[in-house]
Amino acid sequence: MRGIVGVFPELDTTVNAIEELKKLRVGDMTVYTPTPRHELDDVLKHGPSVVRRYTLIGALLGCTFGYWIPIWVSDYWPLVVGGKPIASWVPYTIISFELMVLIGSLATVLGLFVNARIPRITHTVGYDSRFSYGSFGIWVECRPDEQETVRRVLRDKGATEVSSDR
Amino acid sequence: MTTMAPPDRTALRPDNTATADVQLPAITSYTQATDDILDTLRVTKAWFASLGVAVLCLLIGGLSWGYQIYMGLGVAGYRPPVMWGVYIITFVFWIGIGHAGTLISAILYLFRAGFRTTIYRCAEAMTVFAVMTAGLFPILHLGRPWKFFWLIPYPHWRLIWPQFKSPLVWDVFAVLTYLTVSATFLFIGLIPDLAVLRDRETNPVRKQIYGVLSFGWRNSDREWRHFARAYLFLAAFSTPLVLSVHSVVSFDFAMANLPGWHTTIFPPYFVAGAIFSGMGMVFTIIIPVRRWFNLKRYVTINVLDAGAKLCLFTSLVVGCAYLTEFFVAWYSGSEIEQSYFWNRVFGQWWWAAWIMLTCNAILPLSLFSQRLRRNTTFLFILSLWINLGMWYERFVIIVPSMSHEFEPWKWGPYSPTFVDWGILLGSFGWFSMWFLLFVKQLPVLAIAEVKEIVPPKMRYPHHEPDPEGHSISPGLIGSYEVR
């Protein structure tokens, strides 16, 4: 869908523009920022990230696998030493802990990639290289009849450049 | 009204006090921060010269290793009873070096200690390269290094089943996990900065490479939201990991029934020593980087002061552990243990023990002086002594125990050979080579995180409402709320 992108040099004007656009309920909005700012997060009012679920599942899988593999190996090829238990959970906790951290971390990265929708190999609509340098940006994906309203709001709120992209 | 940030606490503090927060008064805009940090990537003749020296050291190490493979492990100075020598000492040394990097990048992140912001990238890279260096030593220690994959514990058709109750198997899991998680943590933190490099690069080939490495990152609110959460969890995983890895390394010794080794103090003693040695190496690296790359406005004297306090604290912990070891040996009533510790300090190995005690427990006491903590030349020289002292700490742990165990007829000498020293030099060359390549290909400061502590450009002054009555004020440290 076609959209409008506005480039803002200042943080406060970006926040004001987001508030105004949210009031008008015009299309989906993506905000670009060179660094994470709590002011933007507060005005966007996103819910909690679901990456935490990936982390939890990965950590549980790693922990379980870390106990299972030494217990299975000990049972399959017992090394009997002086009446000691063949499957001894205390030393296996070390293996389990390390695998919990390893698989939990990798699952967290997977969660980041899935939810942030990266890697992204296609041309990114609405992105401008200034957004990684020093400027803020708002990309609004909207219907043709809403575009003029969006342009006006972006300009009125302080965008130094407003353009359309597809 | 939109939002209100916490009050500016740093404004209340005098300028010359190192605190957990950080201020960069000389940096006024995001663009200045980006330009200054990207400016460090310019290649200079001094960098080429340094890289040449590093590669030369690596070659010396490679030649020494080749000679050892051809002649056999005997040329490495191994003589019964001392069958763990310079290689295991250096393995533990490099693993320890990595720990301060994780402390600064992960643990201080969780504690919201802002002074880490401008040094953590260097420290985290140091961690990854130090663990890569450490990982070479179990292989160098092998008579037939081409069979190195036998070290990896997995059930296979040769029916050589891994013994999961062995500390050496735990070590494999701990070190490989540490390497993987540290490298992942470093790389994930680099993604937004790689996007900056991609956007500022003019060379098409390099732009393409940075584009692939940045995974198409575009600084959107969606990306930052999930990034912040993922980064927090990686930090949360790294924190217990850093404690576990050197504990597991200490089990390599503590599980063995040798005087000086078989003690429960080893895990905390090793962890504190690792962080202390890592802080020493951080200063060895960050002070030249700060000077040569003109980063004094970023790595401020307050940052170094705060780091020096951390170094002093860990030195006190290490010094306390040394004294505890002596006390426990005396209090145990075990003649063998007492004899061993007497030999360590006043006997065969007195010189190594006193190098250790002087460099690790006595010289760092100078950091109680604020004037010395804020003197970069002094900090750099002290860091070299700490590096030396911590290498000798591992020497003192390993060699005297093996050379002076229970039976007097088993006692024996140990002296490293030129092969040992060559490989030790090669390990520094390997580490330095990777680090030097890193500093000219990737930003040594985290651009996105530095921008977090730079006040953003505002149309209306902070705390003052705009004509429509809106007002926002920027936060200081960790301004992004993790949801």
Could you characterize what this model shows?
The complex is a heterodimer of chains A (166) and B (483). Chain A is of the alpha+beta class and 166 residues long. Chain A has 2 domains: 87 residues, 2-Layer Sandwich (Alpha-Beta Plaits); 66 residues, no CATH class. Helices cover 52% and strands 13% of the residues of chain A. In chain A, helix 1 runs antiparallel to helix 5 and helix 3 packs antiparallel against helix 4. The longest helix of chain A is centred in the middle third of the chain and has 28 residues. In chain A, 48% of the residues are buried. By secondary structure, chain B is mostly helical. In chain B, helix 4 packs across helix 5 and helix 5 packs antiparallel against helix 7. Chain B is globular, with a radius of gyration of 24 Å. The two termini of chain B are 22 Å apart. In chain B, 48% of the residues are buried.
- In DSSP terms (H or I, runs of 4 or more residues), the helix count of chain A works out at 5
CATH fold naming of the largest domain in chain A: Alpha-Beta Plaits
How many individual domains of chain A? Answer: 2
Mean pLDDT of chain B comes to 88
Radius of gyration of chain A, in angstroms, nearest whole number: 25 Å
* Count of separate DSSP helical elements of chain B: 15
Number of domains of chain B: 1
Write the layout of secondary structure elements.
The complex is a heterodimer of chains A (166) and B (483).
Chain A: E1 3-8, H1 11-24, E2 28-32, H2 38-44, H3 51-76, H4 89-116, E3 136-141, H5 147-157, E4 161-165
Antiparallel strand pairs in A: 1-3, 1-4, 2-3
Helix pairs in contact in A: 1-2, 1-5, 3-4
Chain B: H1 30-39, H2 45-71, H3 86-110, H4 120-140, H5 167-200, H6 204-213, H7 221-254, H8 266-292, H9 301-332, H10 335-346, H11 350-362, H12 370-373, H13 376-403, H14 418-441, H15 447-452
Helix pairs in contact in B: 2-14, 3-4, 3-7, 3-8, 3-13, 4-5, 4-14, 5-6, 5-7, 7-8, 8-9, 8-13, 9-11, 10-11, 11-13
